[in-house]
Amino acid sequence: MSTTICESCGSEEPRLYRVHRRYITTAAWDTPGVDRTLDEVESWCFACCTSYPNVFADEIAEP
User: Fold this and answer.
1) Taking Cα atoms as reference points, which of 33, 10, 55, 2 lies closest to residue 45?
2) Which phi and psi angles does 25 have, rounded to 5°?
3) How far is CA 45 from CA 9, 32, 35, 36, in A?
4) Residues 6+ positions from 56 with CB-CB distance below 8 Å
5) Where do the structural domains in the chain lie, given as residue ranges?
6) DSSP labels for 13-38?
7) Which position has the higher pLDDT, 63 or 23?
8) Cα separation of 38 and 22, whole Å?
9) 40: number of Cβ within 10 Å
10) What's the N-to-C CA distance of the chain in angstroms?
11) d(CA 56, CA 23)
12) Do the Cβ atoms of 58 and 42 come closer than 8 Å?
């Protein structure tokens, strides 16, 4: 089984997920909140997918 490298944390994983990175900033009294999803598709491991904001791009990326 081949491994690939997560583009978020750099760990070697047998399976990665294709995601769009998402940036979320909560609103404060003096600034509005921001919710921005990038167009670029990255390959992330399961841990990063469950720890950081993202939107799945499609099915599992095959190595």
Assistant:
1) 10
2) -125, 125
3) 8, 31, 22, 21
4) 17, 18, 19, 20, 49
5) 4-61
6) ES-EEEEEEEEEE---SSS--EEEEE
7) 23
8) 6
9) 10
10) 9
11) 14
12) no
Q: 15-61 pLDDT, tens per residue?
A: 999 999 999 999 999 999 999 999 999 999 999 999 999 999 975 44
**Is-contact 5 49, C-beta < 8 A?**
no
Amino acid at 40: E
40, two tokens: 């670029």
User: 60, 63, 47: which is closest to 18 by C-alpha?
Assistant: 60
- ∠ Cα 44 36 59 (to 5°): 35
